[in-house]
Design goal:
Layout (H helix, E strand, L loop, with lengths): L2 E6 L6 H11 L4 E7 L1 H6 L8 H9 L6 E5 L4 H8 L3 E5 L6 H12 L3 E5 L7 H15 L1
Parallel strand pairs: 1-2, 1-4, 2-3, 4-5
């Protein structure tokens, strides 16, 4: 059985998130999705608009997701080892970055392949948040 893993905040869930999960599930027998906890989002200097409990329930309810688990730290390799994943799925906006080149070496040594999926152009939680903020500011 091929187990795949991906992780994200999944705040303001959008079509880009769905595309990644759908494509990932098509490449494995079981897809486990890590949902970033509120504490980790804060640690990264951001703030989720949707609380963790709601975000993990949304992800858990998607038909392409076999299991959703809390991602409470930045160590995705440990989570892959813990669940027995042999593939890690990420958006290609990370491809070629220094951080992910280092990850690739570590994952490769552990026998885990990283698959990059095309980023859905023009769609992100940040863009949605910024747009909502502007619309709300104009309404006042």
């Amino acid at each position: 059985m091929v187990i795949g893993y991906t992780a994200g905040v999944y705040d303001l869930f959008h079509i880009g998130h769905l595309n990644l999960l759908k494509n990932a599930r098509g490449m494995c027998d079981k897809l486990v999705v890590g949902v970033t906890t509120d504490d980790l989002v804060t640690y990264k200097g951001k703030r989720a608009m949707i609380p963790f409990e709601d975000r993990i329930e949304i992800v858990r309810s998607i038909k392409y997701v076999d299991a959703a688990v809390p991602q409470g730290d930045m160590d995705k390799l440990s989570m892959c080892r813990k669940i027995g994943a042999t593939i890690m799925f990420v958006g290609d906006d990370w491809y070629g970055t220094e951080k992910w080149r280092d990850y690739e070496r570590s994952f490769n040594e552990a026998g885990i392949r990283i698959v990059y999926f095309p980023y859905t152009k023009g769609v992100s939680s940040t863009i949605i948040s910024d747009t909502l903020r502007r619309v709300r500011d104009n309404d006042q």
